[in-house]
Amino acid sequence: MERQKNYEKTQLFIFLGVAFALPYILGILMGFGYNKGLDVSVFPSAQMFYPASGAILAAFITHKEDSLIPGRFFIGFLILSFLLLVCTVASVIVPGMSWNVISQYLMIFGSVIAWILLLTEKKDKRIAYGLKGGRWKKAALIVLLYLLLYFGRTVIMYILSGQMKTMFELIQKPVTWLMLITLPINYFLIFTAFFGEEYGWRYFLQPILQKKFGMVRGVLVLGIAWGVWHLPINFFYYSSPSVGLISLTGQLITCVTLGIFYGWAYLKTDNIWTVVILHFINNNLVPIISGNYTEDVLQNQDVTWNGVIVLLVVNTLLFAGVIFTSYYKNDSRRLPTMDERVDRQMKKLEELAQWQDTIE
After folding, report:
1. Contact 126, 74 (CB under 8 A)
2. How far apart, in whole angstroms, are the C-alpha atoms of residue 240 and residue 301?
3. Residues 104-162 pLDDT 10s
4. Statement: residue 42 has pLDDT above 70
5. What are residue 292's phi and psi, to 5 degrees?
6. Cα–Cα distance for residue pair 296/299, rounded to 1 Å
7. Per residue, what are the HEC states of the chain?
8. pLDDT tens digit string along 226-241?
9. Do 194 and 52 form a contact (C-beta atoms < 8 A)?
10. Which residues of 148-185 are buried (b: 16+ CB within 10 A; e: fewer)?
C-alpha cells in the first residue's frame, strides 16, 4: 500500500510536469508568436496530447518492469506527441511554412498508426491500462443523451441571441448535414487528440483526485484544473489578452460543468472511449452549429461577461445535474487509479496461472 502511495506521488509529479508545466512554458513562446502576428494554431492542437503523454511517461518511469504495459501503442503516441511539439516550436522559429497543415497530416497519419498499434496490443495489456472498451450499450445511450443536451443548448443560445432565423438557415444548408454525416469518419482519423486529453484527465487524474478529496470535490478540483490548463490557449488563441480573463472564466465554467458530465459518463461505463467520443463531439460540432464550417471559428472569439453568465446558467442546468446521482454520492463508485487497475489485472493473471497449474 505504501509503495502504491509513493508511486502515485511520483506519477502525479511527472504528469503535472508534462501536462501543465510544458504547455505553460510553451505558452510563453505562443504569446511571443501571437504578438508577432504569427499563426499559433498548432499550439492548441499539440497541447491536447500532453495530458495522456504525462500519464504514459508516468507509467513507463514507475512501472519499468511491468510486462503489462502496452508499449507499442504508448511509444507510438509519445512519438506523435513529440512531433507535434516540434511543430509548435518550429511555427514560431521558422514561420514561413504551413505548420498547421503539417500537424493536421501528422495527426491523421498518427491516428491511423495508433489504431493499428492499439488493436494489436494483447487484451490483458489493454485491460490493465484502461484502454479496453466495455458497457457499449450504456456508452451509446450516454452519447445520445449528450447529443440531445448539446443541441438543446445550441437552440437555447440561438433563441437568447435572437438568431432563430440564422439557425433555420443553417439547418437548410446541405453542407451542414454533409459535415454531420462525415463526423464518425473524422473521429477515427483524429481520435488521438481527444484521447490525449481524456486519458490524462479522466483515466489518470480523476481517480487520484476522487481518492484524495472524495467523489464530488475530486471531480470539481479536476474541472478547475482542466479549465486553468487552457490558460495559454484562452489568452492567445480562443481570444486575445485584452479579454483573456473573460475567456478563461468561461473556460472554467465549461470545464467544471462538462467535467461533471464526463466524469459521470466515465464512472458509469468504466470506458475511456466513452469520454473520448464525447470530447470529440463537443469540439467538432462547434464549426457546424456556428455555420463557419472551419476550425477558425474557435479563434479570436468575441467574449463578454454577459455571455459568461448565460453559459454558467445553461451549462449548469443541462450538464451538471448528474452530480446528484449515486455515482457521486457513494465512494465505492470510484474507479481504480492506474496502479490499482494494473495490480488488479496482475492478480487476476496470477490466479489464472495458479488455477491452470492446479489442473495440470
Report:
1. no
2. 8
3. 999 999 999 999 999 999 999 999 999 999 999 999 999 999 999 999 999 999 999 89
4. yes
5. -85, -40
6. 5
7. CHHHHHHHHHHHHHHHHHHHHHHHHHHHHHHHHHHCCCCCCHHHHHHCCHHHHHHHHHHHHHCCCCCCCCHHHHHHHHHHHHHHHHHHHHHHHCCCCCHHHHHHHHHHHHHHHHHHHHHCCCHHHHHHCCCCCCCHHHHHHHHHHHHHHHHHHHHHHHHHCCCHHHHHHHHHCHHHHHHHHHHHHHHHHHHHHHHHHHHHHHHHHHHHHHHHHCHHHHHHHHHHHHHHHCHHHHHHHHCCHHHHHHHHHHHHHHHHHHHHHHHHHHHHHCCHHHHHHHHHHHHHCHHHHHCCCCHHHHCCCCCCHHHHHHHHHHHHHHHHHHHHCHHHHCHHHCCCCHHHHHHHHHHHHHHHHHHHHHHC
8. 999 999 999 999 999 9
9. no
10. ebbeebbeebbeeeeeeeebeebeeeeebeebeeeeee
- The C-alpha cell at 338 is 492506474
Q: Do 104 and 192 form a contact (C-beta atoms < 8 A)?
A: no
Is the pTM higher than 0.85? The answer reads: yes
- 354 CB-near residues (< 8 Å, 6+ apart): none
Residue 212's identity, in one-letter code, is K
Neighbours of 356 (CB within 10 A): 9
The length of the chain in residues reads 360
Give the closest residue to 108 by CA, choosing from 33, 39, 193.
193
Q: How far apart are CA 199 and CA 313, in angstroms?
A: 28
Q: Residue 208: what are its φ and ψ, rounded to 5°?
A: -65, -45
Cell digits of residue 71? 508499449
The CA-to-CA distance between both ends of the chain, in Å, stands at 33
Asked if pLDDT for residue 359 goes beyond 80, the answer is no
Looking at per-residue pLDDT, the higher value among 355 and 172 belongs to 172
The letter for the amino acid at 119 is L
